[in-house]
Specification:
homodimer, alpha/beta, Arc Repressor Mutant, subunit A, Aspartate Aminotransferase, domain 1, Aspartate Aminotransferase, domain 2, eight-stranded mixed beta sheet, 16 strands, about 15% strand
């Protein structure tokens, strides 16, 4: 009895603080707590853990919550089940030793995000629809490449600059369409995200002032934050980056990174006149212009606008296959003046030697035989249909909200009524069957608390319609837009 | 006549300074010079270039040198051939505008290296022999993966942590062999070079003191130099890193990155006792230990030594398929305490989202079906034979030089007689039919002027024998070792 009392006391004394309203589920909070006890020696090697039922009773938790925490601890090797005798703390020394890693590691600037939920209509990710993947054509391209004599060379160490036939193909294409200028060259990257990474390593130092659109894709923002750059977000309207606000910030800035066509997350596209004006102002101030051109070939309506790089050879352009073709195959590129490409290739070598060669060869084969263009046409037709479904559903269900329908790309930026917080609404949204990314995810300095991004292109028209209907109900049920006229903002605490 | 005189004057006045002894070939020097003239306006758009024969005569060059320079300028779009009328400066605005990129770009710390020469016995690259690639087995694995239902998922956006089945396979393997400790996790990277890049982004800040072996693989050194780390090189003997010198540097250091098995470039391997001592000292000083374990499974003689990670869970270990299997397929990993892996995965997302999924799936299939292990056995047998050829040839031809035969890996570190400069000798070596990397390529602070690295594993035994014979002749012809006894070192200037 003394043993039992002591045992219960032991477990009552070390009661964790669990928060049912936190983003992290309870079973993970419990796992983290128990793991912390093992690491700190609060639970000793060989010690028996209470049966799940007992611990659930002590902590007022569901028994499955405790079981799930034990399962994670067991999978990680912290505890082991010994049949009917229960679960015991393992004897092995833990990996982390007594090091407090969290205080040692560099900040990555990634925002904590909710784990994905299954079974919801998922508007969170800017990725193409897997249903459209031309899998048979991809298999054919891959089979041809694998059967070729080239395979031995593809498996051997390659060049930091990329697989030469792909480089030449892209360069020829860029010369034909007037994007590549004399003295330009191309570096193959592992997707466009790596193009961003290499360009900031090549061009930006800590303290440099970098201008980007706001709201902005977090992968851009975080990369420059890691570099210690001084980032200024320039607001975006339906015509793209605000040229007056930009103009006021250009002086002394090092670099402007801009997405003129179908910006992520707003979907905005710059008219030709704005593009010319942007280049004129940037040239005056000597700011380096990096153009993110990964969405421009996904236009569903209106006429093609020439990329910045076409009008001004000094622009550095990033491209990628991922948004049209297969994001799981990581191939992108940088087109720019040779000295920039040469230096970026040196950083590429430090980063990962070179991009996977098999994938480069397969994508080249796929593009050279016209399969990429054929696929793109299908994607455009399907995108048009999705955009129409989105427009109709939004008009019908999203009264009180504001948006501008994009002419291409993957995303719609939605502003809810002023007093609806998109992060708070997301909790109900996930329960109601849809998910999206709240506006603050795309912040540089502005909060965008009532905005959200709907990535619609990976969904089917029926899902889009159903998802927007659910979103509309949530907004209405929040009582927000109906009570909008009477809503009184609370002044900030000063 | 006035026109012709003026034309000749024009071309004589802007005579370039070409250096036939420089690393950059003459035709590239001429190209750079002419391109500079076009960029600066010294040559105007529409201006005709002299016929290759005339310019060759004016500059005292071979005509093919001038032709090669014109070809490069034409390929880059600076000039265009107009049939029999000759070559003209193109009208298009150059990409670089009037920006002086070279003064704008960040330093990459990459050393200028000689371009590869063809037709020589190439000891320069630490890569496996393409002749041993099990191409049919690779084709089989790839075909199975491509035919599977998994392909749709592989082509879609994946996780920054890597392809989950591969992650689990590697983690299970590491648990079985005792390398993975409770609380450890794995992050898939795009080869081991990216593991280095992500770990330095996760763990090192500008000014942090980082310890590494010296001589060292430049990809390690350059990565930490880019981060602004304060790098200290610790000498390497045949038993690996010098523990006394290391001990004197540990205090206040942030991180030690070490290759205990078959270090690149020395081939040195640490005995078990040295490994234990290293861990003891590192633990005392609180220095983070990163173990580069990419060569340990390439042992040709002696007995396997347990990796550092097995004895100490706090160690962070880097691994890769590239050194055993296919370097063109970029898949490596980091095994370490979960907080480190979690943070490194966030940096992975900023770096390139995730590693190519098709390659991950194919390598998993290849490994799961035992093909990787079967291939490794073949590589070991062949490596043993190559090492024997190297040993015999070195004993026979390299009198006056010093080396320690490695028990595994890909490299032999050779010290020439004191007064032979390996960089100077390389010029003759390339003419005589072999190439290698000089010692200073692997410097942190020590010059290693009379050392060089022989990467032997990608060559056939006959090539190794012939190459070492050539190298021996070169060393003897340099008159160095025969005059060694009478060589008087010049004191340093103080």
């Amino acid at each position: 009895m003394a043993g039992l009392a002591c045992y219960i006391w032991h477990w009552m004394a070390i009661r964790p603080h669990l928060d049912a309203t936190a983003e992290t589920p309870l079973y993970r909070q419990l796992r983290d707590y128990l793991q912390g006890l093992i690491e700190s020696g609060g639970l000793q090697a060989g010690e028996r853990l209470p049966p799940t039922r007992d611990l659930a009773g002590l902590l007022g938790l569901n028994r499955t919550t405790v079981s799930a925490a034990y399962d994670l601890l067991s999978a990680d090797g912290w505890i082991e089940a010994r049949g009917a005798r229960g679960s015991f703390v393992r004897e092995l020394a833990p990996a982390s030793g007594d090091r407090r890693w969290d205080s040692i590691l560099n900040p990555s600037f990634a925002r904590a995000s909710l784990p994905p939920v299954s079974g919801v209509i998922d508007f969170t990710t800017s990725r193409p629809s897997a249903a459209l993947f031309p899998i048979e054509e991809f298999r054919k391209s891959a089979a041809d490449v694998l059967a070729s004599d080239e395979i031995g060379r593809l498996l051997q160490l390659g060049s930091p600059r990329g697989y030469e036939p792909l480089r030449q193909y892209l360069l020829d294409q860029a010369r034909r369409d007037g994007t590549a200028h004399p003295g330009d060259d191309i570096l193959i990257t592992s997707g466009c995200q790596q193009a961003v990474d290499l360009l900031r390593r090549t061009l930006v130092r800590a303290g440099d002032r970098v201008l980007m659109e706001e709201p902005v894709y977090p992968g851009l923002r975080n990369s420059f934050r890691e570099a210690g750059a001084d980032i200024t977000g320039i607001p975006v309207s339906e015509d793209g980056i605000d040229l007056d606000r930009l103009g006021a910030q250009l002086s002394g800035a090092r670099l402007l990174i801009v997405t003129p066509s179908f910006q992520n997350p707003t979907g905005a596209a710059m008219p030709a006149s704005n593009r010319a004006e942007l280049l004129r102002r940037a040239a005056q101030s000597g700011v380096i212009v990096v153009e993110n051109d990964i969405y421009s070939s996904l236009r569903y309506s209106g006429t093609h606008q020439a990329p910045l790089k076409q009008a001004d050879g000094g622009v550095i352009q990033m491209g990628s296959f991922s948004k049209i073709a297969f994001p799981g195959i990581r191939v992108g590129w940088i087109l720019g003046p040779r000295p920039v490409i040469d230096r970026a290739a040196e950083f590429k070598q430090i980063t990962d030697l070179h991009t996977d060669q098999l994938s480069q060869a397969i994508l080249l084969h796929f593009a050279e035989r016209g399969m990429l263009e054929k696929h793109r046409e299908r994607v455009i037709l399907s995108g048009r249909e999705k955009l129409r479904a989105l427009e109709q559903a939004a008009r019908r269900h999203l009264a009180g909200c504001q948006w501008t329908l994009p002419a291409g790309g993957m995303n719609l930026w939605l502003e809810l009524p002023q007093n609806v917080d998109s992060s708070a609404l997301r909790v109900s949204a996930r329960e109601a069957g849809i998910d999206y990314l709240p506006g603050n995810y795309f912040s540089v300095t502005r909060p965008f608390h009532n905005a959200l991004r709907l990535s619609f292109i990976g969904l089917e028209p029926d899902q889009i319609r159903r998802g927007i209907e659910i979103l509309g109900q949530l907004v209405r049920n929040s009582g927000a837009w109906r009570s909008r006229e009477t809503y009184t903002p609370v002044p900030a605490l000063v």
